[in-house]
Amino acid sequence: MKTIAIDFDGVVHAYSRGWQDGTIYDPPLPGAIDALNLLMQDHAVFIHTTRDAATVAGWLADRGFDTVVDVDGPKHPKREFWNDTGSLLVTDRKLPAVAYIDDRGIRFQNWIQALHELGNVV
Predict the structure, then answer these.
(1) Rounded to an integer, what distance in angstroms lies between the CA atom of residue 58 and that of residue 68?
(2) What pLDDT is stored for residue 53 in this prediction?
(3) What is the mean pLDDT of the chain?
(4) Quick one: which of 9, 53, 64, 109 is 20 to 30 A from 116 by CA?
(5) Where are the extended beta strands (E) located within the chain?
(6) What is the pTM of this model?
(7) How far apart are CA 64 and CA 105, in angstroms?
(8) Residues 13-26, mean pLDDT to the nearest whole number
(9) DSSP string covering 58-79, please?
(10) Number of Cβ atoms within 10 Å of the Cβ of 33
(11) How far apart are CA 73 and CA 33, in angstroms?
(12) Measured between alpha carbons, how far is 54 from 72 in angstroms, rounded to an integer?
């Protein structure tokens, strides 16, 4: 099973005004819902976010997704991996995946290249 990790803000949620008070105020980015549905046909997909996972899961559920919230407790310890193709996991952690889709990522090839690319954004 190949797992895909997807950042929430700026990738699924438009995030046009930044964090604000933590509420989810924008619609999905164009194509985001269709892309998630397409990826979920053949891959396990999880959403990672710094927002409250239950709030993000509710927002996604309102758009037709079956969601699972990564919670920590005696009956439901946080997951070490995700491999379910039928639901979207929402978590505050980056679990193992074959690919990470994030609006603020730098693709690492080597440190010279990474530092060069980082210099273009900071």
Answers:
(1) 10
(2) 93
(3) 92
(4) 9
(5) 3-7, 44-48, 67-69, 88-91, 99-101
(6) 0.90
(7) 28
(8) 93
(9) HHHHTTT--EEE---SSSSPPP
(10) 16
(11) 30
(12) 12
CA dist 100 → 3, 21, 22, 73 (Å): 9, 26, 23, 27
Query: What 3-state DSSP class applies to 100?
Result: strand
For residue 82, pLDDT beyond 90: yes
Question: Is residue 118 packed enough to be buried (19+ CB in 10 Å), middle (13-18) or exposed (0-12)?
Answer: exposed
When computed from its CA atoms, the radius of gyration of the chain, rounded to whole angstroms, is 15
pLDDT higher than 70, residue 17: yes
Q: Is 106 exposed, middle or buried (0-12, 13-18, 19+ CB in 10 A)?
A: middle
CB 95 within 8 A of CB 65: no
The encoded tokens of residue 28 equal 């999905």
> Quick one: pLDDT at residue 1?
67
